[in-house]
Q: What sequence folds into this?
């Protein structure tokens, strides 16, 4: 699943990153290795992390929670700019 977009099928025509987009790499948990498109997110939205719908977590149909680590550097511009780490699941 590495290098694929979160929310896209494995057989999507463009399953990998696009050079002009900005992504957060998802680390750990059921979505480990996927890239979350964060293009257009404000810095405070990135600081909040994401609750992502998935059938792969502890609660099928629930959400897996991913958050950045405080103080971890972010790279500006396109490409993988930060990492979101798995912090648990919620129904």
A:
């Amino acid at each position: 699943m590495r290098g694929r977009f979160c929310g896209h099928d494995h057989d999507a025509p463009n399953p990998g990153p696009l050079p002009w987009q900005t992504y957060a790499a998802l680390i750990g948990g059921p979505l480990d290795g996927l890239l979350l498109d964060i293009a257009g997110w404000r810095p405070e939205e990135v600081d909040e992390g994401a609750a992502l719908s998935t059938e792969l977590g502890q609660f099928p149909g629930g959400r897996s929670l991913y958050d950045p680590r405080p103080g971890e550097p972010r790279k500006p511009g396109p490409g993988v700019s930060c990492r979101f780490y798995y912090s648990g699941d919620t129904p």
Observations:
- Residues 54 and 60 are 7 Å apart (CA to CA).
- The radius of gyration is 13 Å.
- The longest helix spans residues 43-48.
- The chain has a mean pLDDT of 84.
